[in-house]
Queue: 4 jobs
Job 1
Amino acid sequence: MIRRICGVFVLLCLPVLATFAQSAGAIRDYVGLINQTYHPDIVSYIEKFKVEFERQGNTDAIRSVDRFLKGPFGTGFVYVAPNGDNFIITNNHVIAQSYSLSVTFEKVSGEQTRYDGLSIVAADEELDIAILAFPGGERPFQNGLTISTELVDEGTDVFSAGFPSLGGNPVYQFGRGIVSNASVRIPREDNEEILMGPYIQHTAQIDAGNSGGPLLIAQAGVPAGYAVLAINTLSAYRRQAANYSIPGSTAMEYINAALDPVPVNGREALDKRLDAFIAEVNVPRAVYKDIAKYLSYVCVAENTEYAISEIEDRRNSNRTVWNDIVEAFNDYPVNGMRLAVAWAMENSMRTRSGIIRISLEDVREISPAEYEVTFTVNGNTTGSRWVREYGTWRINSFGSVVSGDKSLLAEKERQRSLEDALFTDYSFMVQAGYTHVFERGAAVNAAMRFGGRSSLYSMKAVFSGSNFWQAELGWGFFVPVRLTNFAIMPLFGLGFGAMKSGSYIKSSSNIEESDIRMGVSVEAGLLFTTAKVRGLFLSAIYQHNFYTDFGHRMAGAKDTYPDKNYLLFSVGYGF
């Protein structure tokens, strides 16, 4: 009897199991892979890294760049509104850096259908929900997934569907788990006192790429046999199978409001955003991390290269900022770019004393989605543009530095070329030229200087035939004063050496003295170089000698040798 019942039970269950398998397969028809492309300026900047890696032969780094340039990806699912309009529901963070968007649906057979040019209907950064529309208002689907607003019990079977990464490539995955916490709030990463949620915590498989995909429960009478219980959005770090999803009730409340919106006063929302921005900037500390969230995607893309070049020039004096940017860049390059542009904006506002005082001066509407906002920053008027991006007001430009002006970068590159050609950091120098010896006449000079940076040792000689010469070892330093395309370098030095000045009779004693003298000298002068020829310089130096005769002379006789003062004019080359 028991065997017969079991046999009948198995037979009765076969159609149910078949339906389950068929439904799981049908889910793929409604769950799509979302791809985005980056702004051309971001692509152009990152490709420069690839060129450098190719020069180095670093194949691993080249592959990493190629993977990044493919653009990030995530998951979304089809939702059909009561009036038949088709939409894709996903996470805001899946589309937050997008220049263009597409969605691809893949059947079990491998056949793919792709839709390019998706538009963003609405997006919310706090809720992390985004609604996308098909290009031209297309309606390729008669039905979409049903979103459930019902509460569920812990232990309920749930299923995840999406396109997690496998070797950097998205691969469809259907997973199974249970609800492990029906309603939970979790602390925000940057401020543990702020709780996010509520979320549904579950154990169904979630990996990078699943974001925006549906968390499903089996339900009869709906397309594919599953309803969307929640939107997968987070996974806990260093927790086993602790995944978090936005409840369907939260999602539906947002979707209904976004698709049938109550008229919103855009200016009122902007005023609140401006008040928050001013409050966060008017504090006695670094604010670039706070500014970052106010920057539009276009602002980040158009100003990244200039901003990073600025912080590179100052990274020794801004080591903490540089490290923050590098860390964010390694985690996700666009995040590092955002921090760099935010720092450039903060840096443009700070006075030399490090103060920022900002207040609102004027707000003028350009269009319902764009405003010109004028601030008073440390007593100076600064203009900005604010745009509505993904449902939030953000900065598109600010002042003359964060303006998207490509001429700033071009000018910076020109200055860098000039600075590279304007070489003043010599470790070895050779020079030769004409010397005017007071009371004697013309002579020739030659010198070598070596050492490091502006502190140099020297070997120098001045000579005029066989009757006069001077040889010295010395030490000196020069201070480069760099201007636009030339530099003036004041030089100071000390020398010790010997001089042959020729035999002569002192008028006071009629005693012939030795023609070899020894002593010290001091020199002071200017070196001049330009960016026209790298390393070439001219010099004009005054030298005074304190030399004495160690030969025989009468007591009280004065040392009256004439070779005490020189003017040396030289041309040289530095390495």
Job 2
Amino acid sequence: MKLNRILFALALAAASSAAGFAQSSIQNPITQAVLAVYEEELRENPNDYNVLMSRADEYYRHDEYIRSLADVDRVLQLAPESEEDVRLRAYVLRAGIYNETKRTAEALDDLIKAAAMAPDSYSIIYQKANAEFSLGKYADAKLDFQKLQRLNPRGAEAYIGLARVAVKENNLGMANELLASAVNLDPNNAETYVRRASVRRLMGDHNGAVDDLILAISSDNKHPKAMQELIDYGNTNYPATMAGLSNAVSQAPQVGMFRYIRAVIAQAHCHYLAAINDYQTILDERLYNYHGIYASIAECNYCLGNYSDALDYIDRALGMVRDNAGHYVLRSRILRAMGNYDEAVKSGAAALAVDRQDNDALAEMALGYVGVGNYAEASNLLGEAILNDAENPHYMMLRAWVAEKYLNKPSLAEELYNKVADMEHFYVDNPRSLKGFAQLFLGQTELAKHWMENILDTVTDYDGLIHYYGACFYAQAGDIERAMELADKSLNLGYANYHAWTEATDGRVNVAPLRDDLRFLNMLHRHDSIFGKELKK
């Protein structure tokens, strides 16, 4: 039985700790060609609202919401009232943009206008009801969900919506009846279980919600939303997620997919030993034999500091497929950890040979060059990564570090730190935005501490990663006592990345200043079990 490649890609992408700064597919040559046609047509007639509408749709498909909004606003200015079809499309599209950018009230205004133009449109009434629910307008939402029932008595969406309203009305009995009706209407549809899971989550029935997501995946293992919802659930309720998956594994031990998903989620939450156990069981029992599983075991071993084992597994993965840039990037990281910088550079180059636009490969090859002392080339490669993805603070922080530490270019470092400090995106309250680190290195200590403490106070830490970043921050700030306190909390929460604790030095986002402190070494030793070190004694 082959592991579905789409499932693997979606799962790993959703679980990855580096998610959130991906390049837009709008750079695809075909998309660029389409946009060029629209550009030419608009040069000939800037007021062609049909072309503007088409371009707005194209931008929206590629998550270019600001550009899409500019075009659709122009459409609504230009299209006469008699062009109802165009204006209807524009209102619906603009509502979608507003929803994606968390402007639900504005979305509802446009959906009200759209519903007035198409009062029997199931999709518009459905979107309108959901917007009303999100804004706490439960009575209005209830009326619209009831209207959906009249438009399509066998539509499960209406029952799910009414169940959500019933929960808000504290009528849990009615909510459960409505959920049962939804499933009875469409028992083979994975989306029904995904939606029921969302209501059960609202009810606080986390185990039931996880079970529904597993049912959704069981009925359609290509269902991307079910997979992502389950992984997202792991981010907010790890115990319930793992309990549900463990139950699924025990009931169907030969269904490798459940064990695989459990491993992916465990790995994403730095529970590397558990992940390795599931991945290895999949291989030992021949449930799947996929190069990505070998790569995942390699990454887990790398994080646990087992570099020889990691290299062995990534080489097995590359023995199965030679055109995977990510595998070469991981191999380069492992080789750097082993001090083999020349070979690390070669693996980075191999990744770029597969995909010249792979920014992680550019960064990894740069770090290999740092190891061999070629700092100028390292800076150039990181500069290329920044050009490719100007919204990724990681590459800027690495280049600033190289400029400051190795090239005697403090002005370049300051420029890069300022760019990171000035970035405004929705990851600003995520430590991966690195905003506070940049402020710290610019000497803006109080601003930086405010950023870090706000994250520690407001962001729930499910696996110790948040407190690890806190330990890194205060270690770099010279507040060793606060850093030790946060490191202890991180370890108690299970953050098992031994490489990060003991070896990582890239870019000044690390706990290097703690490593000569005997208290820190003893702290790590007390947590040997999460790293698997006790097993090796």
Job 3
Amino acid sequence: MRFSVLRGLSWRDWIVALVGGIAIVAVLMTVAWTGRHGWAIYRLNRGVGDTVFYDALGRPWFRLDEQRRDVKFDQIATSFKDAVIAVEDHRFYLHPGIDPIALTRAALYNVRSATGTQGGSTLTQQLARTLFLSNQRTYGRKAKEAALAVLLEVMLTKREILELYFNRVYLSGGIYGIETMSEKMLQKHASELTLAEAALVAGIIRAPASYSPWTHPDAARRRSFVVLQRMREEGKITPAQEQAARAERIRIQPQPSVSGARHGYAKEYLRQQFRDIYGGDNPPDWRVDTTFVPEIQDAAELAVRDGLRRTGVKGLQAALVALDPRTGNILALVGGSDFSKSPFNRAVRSRRQPGSAFKPFVYAAALEKGLSPVSTISGIKALSILAPEGVWIPRGERTGEQDSMTLREALLESNNAAAVLLQQQVGSASVLRLAADAGVRNQPDVPSLALGSGVVSPLDLTAAYAVFPSLGYRVRPRGLVTVRDSAGEVVTRVHIEREQVLSAQVAFQMVTMLEDVVNRGTGTGARRAGVLGSVGGKTGTTNDYHDAWFVGFSSSVVVGVWVGFDQPERIREGGSGAQVALPIWSDFMKKTARSLPAAPFDAPGSLRPQELCRISYMRPVEGCPTYIEYFKDGDDVPSRLCTIHTGNLKQATQRAIQGLLGALGRGIKGIFGR
């Protein structure tokens, strides 16, 4: 019977039923949304929460605004209240949360203008966005903003709305709220602001980045004159008061750091990541999950502090970045010697020459071209390059350079001429492409590229090195994971980004070569310092010891360290990467060895292992110190026996025969090659 009734329905009945169902669902969703946000607004009477950042283990770590000081409405200067209303929303006391007149004017302007847009948001809408929404410019967000503004007006008084607004508004420099801004900028309470000071702060609200009194003082002052003009037009001040305020000299204090020194660089980096998405908003009871581990951050800050102290050089700065090579998750980040004294984040914002720390990308490009770690670079001593300024002969500190070296030997010794010659052989385009794919972009196409003559940030270079322990995968550095609103819903998710840019075979060959740098080359200081396990890396030093680097890795972490001055100058005589950057890296690796263990790297199955002499890089004879070299398809595998060590009688005879045949072959080639 039930099915026969359904079959008897006409298509019009089905449409009516469908529309009715959709309408019921829409009403229920609207009621649920309104009820949830209505409850959140009701809770505002008990105080406003804050956006809280959580560490990688799900523990509360810090608040978005650790400095905010809420004050009562009566503790705010009347001139500031009048200034904000006059310049931001002069019909505030007349509208119900949205202003139809302002919206119409803004819409007409935006339709007619081809150069920019004009907003029509009321103070209540701005508060609704700050408390509950994001800064994304979508029609859906604007509709929610309007609905929430009306809810705020229904459930709160105008006075309560203004009090919340003045305590939550973003005023540049990482500062929220009028009381905190007054204390930091003017060293006085919000109740003590003069008319000129009130106009200056009120003018910041429209565009905190453009009108910050610390970074754009002239623009901030000009904006304050606009505020004073609007106050006069609204009848809040007289022309004489306006002129007096224009002439008043305002003493602005130096910009303060926005948080304590401990974890300061990491916290401010994450705050900026949040602001890049949500602007100056500071919604209550939102949760931000991050990739950082505070205990690892502590180890990083301690390693940097102790490492700089050991140098004995005043004013020296350092940066350290530690990230997971499998995911790109940033585990720790230090941007200088002391955040409280210098909040400039050198790990992210500074771009310096990497020196020899760039060389691994040259060698990886060569391996991609079909060379092996024991392929030979010949003609090193004769290398000279015609440059615009004359003939350039790349030489390092080491004297007595060999004329012929294997790739492995040249990298572990950081031979400059060998790296430049190798770049010429494989072509700059291949090196530039691989470096860009790994994350080191915009490098110069010059012969000195192999010596790190471009510039790069510590964060980008460290992330680029992840391509080796991850066996070929580029990862994008990630600090934020998810952002959840007060209802627990995910509003932003930052996904792991991995892309294979290098074959696993080449990446593993590079891992073994960079392990050799630590075991036998310029990075041996790490072993002397007590670093254990399977680790690899590369030192870097620029001309006249201006920049010192060490970027290294284990299977669990990639860590980059830079040391230098903000204005490039000599660190000290002999201030190389091995002397000043490597000790910081080693100290960090030891401190985190338990939480970030260095497991052995597994060779891809397609590689062929071959035992070779560690000195001659030929097939071993009796008495040779040996190691295992790995060869990919197409690599030339050495067939000659070691010519350095004696071996037994049978091996000596075999070697003599090989030498004779080789000489005979070269002679025949010489005869017929004439």
Job 4
Amino acid sequence: MKKTLVIIFTLVMAVSCTEDFETININPNYPASAQPELLLPGIQREMAYNWGSQGWEEGFTVVQYGARLQFTSGDTYNWSPSGDPYDNAYASLRDVENIIRDTRENEDAQNYYGVALVMKSWIYSYVTDAYGDVPYSEATSGIENGNVTPVFDAQSTIYAGILSDLEMANTLLTDADNISGDIFYDGDIAKWRKFANSLRLRLLMRISDVDNATAVAGMTQITSNPSLYPIFESNDDMTFVEWNSDNPQPKYDTRSGSFDEVRLSQTLEKRLKELGDNRLYVFAQPTSNSEKGIFSEDFDDYVGMPNGLDDEAALGYSPTGNPDESGSNFISRLGILLGCRACNPEEASATASHTIIMSYSELQFILAEAAERGFITSGDAAMYYENGIKASFEYYTERVAAGGWSDITNAMQATDLDAYVAQDAVAFTGDSDDNLAKIALQKWISLFYTGFEGWSDWRRTGMPEVTPGPDAVNDGRVPVRFQYPNSVKSTNSENYNAAVQNMGADNINTKLWWDVY
């Protein structure tokens, strides 16, 4: 009798343990899935913060919006292998893939699926434009099958996938505003469609010199049917993160020294002064030596420094050549719009500065170039060009007003935009080469602090000119890509080596697939 009861008890326990095995062994701290509205804001915040941080580093210095006063290795092209943005991108892409997996077949969640495809496309464009060939087709397969050594796909393959996903997202996104947790557009699906198509135009322009047929066909498809393929129509549609006091703009809480390491570049200073461009008031502050605070109507109080100085030369740089007038007091900080609380305790704003992912102004310059080069027949190149200039001025006027800086706001509002556009150095009245150079210059100005988008556009066009500084290494060549992270070389060496064989040497001078300038 006792033996029989022991056997029965053992069988019951065995069945019970087997039935409960999966439940018991699920880690509650790492759920297999999560609601998309909980995943989406984290993805957006982390990637926007990374994009903004990259804008502060290479984004400012490579194409010379800013110059380094201290720790100048980045400005002299003494670059090391970089895990940024690689690590952040793939950490976020895992969560993007979770949203896609859980919404793809759910008819009630197609807007989340469409938004996830747009986020996936933006993040992949960011990481591939940093490194070139990167994991794509197998990148997040570890979620499903444990593949932790994904292949590196050719950049051409990645772009094809991105462009296809953006086209699909435009179809998936409906008129129903039924998503939450969205810190880009607060659930406005119509604006997500505009972002999908505007981003697609950015990337089509990127490949226009290496795959012109695809670029022209895609641009024509979008611009010839605005009702089916809506794009940004004003600054209200642009993609950005508006920070709040609990999550302030990325440089607000940094220490004063970290903010002060980047100063106004002499390149940006000279170009804005030559144009009489009041955006100088927004992008820079008067020198401390001028004792004018955060604003002066006198352009002479704004002074930049050369790029590409070594540490000693940078710290001792004197704009006048007088050694008694050297150092940080005689060089302009970047504008109060980006100011940190420690260095401007009375004037800095936690919320006035946006982290811009893509602006309406940028889109207008893309369309201007497309029209000027004959890629599209919709619209007029001069119209797009002037729209881009005016949109940039209007955007920055609105942002300094939001920060409460009335003197800067008044100076921006007083700008005579018609006169600005009519001056010889700006007017769209030259031959095609001259007009394209003017588009490139105005687009470069408008891309101030937009990730490293200014660098990407320069790599594609070579405009406007970037002159390496006097202490630049790398044989005086401007870098055209990041090196892969060391961790990738050690943990995925076989596929890393295959990528290097496909692309060329893993150094900062190996051009990307679309970079044929």
